[in-house]
Write a structure and sequence with these properties.
The chain has 379 residues and is mostly helical. It has 2 domains: 66 residues; 238 residues, no CATH class. 59% of the residues lie in helices and 0% in strands. Helix 5 packs antiparallel against helix 6, helix 6 crosses helix 9 and helix 11 packs across helix 13. It is elongated, with a radius of gyration of 41 Å. It starts with 5 loop residues before the first helix and ends in a 19-residue tail after the last helix.
Length: 379
């Protein structure tokens, strides 16, 4: 007998199923009459639709609590608290996801351990880089020279803000030996910047102390020329004692006696006053105000000592480093004063050190180089 075709076998199976239905006395539409090979229709109800099939439900019931395993793994691998917490979170999530993840949990623990080790190595490397920087004995005098050069320059716009960054920029342009380059690591540059800030703070305190000493009753040589001369000679500074510098020190001294200035940060108050004078619509107000204050100082503390000879402002005849200081001194910024309600943008050491290249390349055509004439009210 020839084998039955697929169609004939299908018909035979259908007839047999129909016979079973008749024997049971069920109508053809009954679910029991549905052939076993047919999948049951699943409900479209959202609550029932998300339930796993019976076979998967049995598998879920066998999933162990993976949290203890995660705790043991974290302890064995000595994970940090934050990594252990992340591992346990994954353990809990794995248990609720309807499948065991024992192997993946172990792999995750190892991965987090590697992450902790890398973080520790990165921190150690940064610390090591910071320790690599050792201040050379030859650099200390240079830091003092440039710090005092800015403080004794009457064209400097502010005594706080990014003054330290500007000092570093000038030192880099002067190619001072044994200082971090602008391409050095952030930690090294930060360490060096802290040293410069400290020196500036020490020098500003010295200026303030000398001015306070001159205010004492019966103080000898209290005139501005004598006071400034003592500071310059004590420091051994190359900065010239000019009339404009005496104007600046006159402003510094009046803030030690001004009742309105008391209670405020001393150098911050001076910065704010300088900015206010420069910002006036009348460009001459800045110079006139300093002159008025200087004349009042002379009346109160005496005429300038004849033993002190006033010098010319910094110019082509001056040392190159003084000329560079004067060029960048007006670019010192203090955003707390100029933009107190805004975030402000601080110039970085890299940006400041590139100023001269930008000007030489003609990239700052709309911003001509600052000269000493700006102190005559043109700024």
């Amino acid at each position: 007998m020839a084998p039955l075709s697929l169609l004939e076998r299908g018909r035979a199976r259908a007839a047999a199923a129909q016979q079973r239905t008749s024997d049971l006395g069920l109508p053809p539409s009954s679910p029991s009459a549905t052939p076993r090979s047919t999948s049951p229709v699943r409900s479209t109800d959202n609550d029932e639709q998300d339930l796993p099939p019976p076979a998967l439900s049995r598998a879920v019931a066998r999933v162990p609590n993976l949290v203890p395993l995660g705790q043991r793994s974290a302890k064995r691998l000595k994970l940090t608290p934050s990594s252990e917490q992340e591992l346990l979170r994954i353990c809990e999530a794995s248990a609720s996801a309807h499948y065991p993840f024992e192997r993946q949990i172990l792999q995750t623990a190892v991965t987090l351990k590697v992450k902790d080790d890398l973080d520790e190595m990165r921190a150690a490397m940064e610390k090591s880089k910071a320790q690599e920087f050792k201040l050379s004995a030859d650099v200390k005098p240079e830091i003092r020279k440039f710090s005092r050069g800015f403080l004794l320059d009457p064209t400097v716009h502010f005594y706080e803000g990014n003054l330290a960054e500007t000092v570093v920029a000038v030192m880099q342009k002067e190619k001072i030996a044994h200082i971090p380059s602008k391409d050095a690591s952030k930690s090294v540059r930060s360490e060096f910047l802290s040293v410069v800030r400290h020196q500036i703070s020490v020098d500003k305190n010295h200026i303030k102390s000398e001015l306070e000493e001159s205010l004492k009753r019966g103080a000898e040589n209290a005139d501005l020329a004598s006071v400034v001369s003592r500071i310059v000679s004590t420091w051994g500074a190359e900065s010239p004692i000019t009339l404009k510098l005496l104007w600046r020190f006159g402003l510094m001294r009046v803030f030690l006696t001004d009742d309105e200035a008391k209670g405020r940060k001393y150098w911050g108050a001076i910065d704010k006053e300088l900015h206010t004078l420069r910002s006036d619509e009348d460009a001459g107000v800045y110079v006139y105000s300093l002159q008025e204050n200087f004349e009042s100082d002379v009346e109160k503390y005496g005429k300038l000592s004849s033993d002190v000879e006033l010098e010319n402002d910094v110019g082509p005849h001056s040392a190159k480093w003084l000329q560079r200081v004067q060029k960048l001194a007006p670019r010192v910024e203090n955003v707390k004063v100029t933009n107190p309600n805004g975030a402000g943008r601080k110039r970085t050491v890299r940006e400041l050190s590139d100023i001269e290249e930008e000007e030489a390349a003609g990239e700052k055509e709309n911003e001509p180089p600052v000269t000493a004439d700006d102190e005559n009210g043109t700024d």
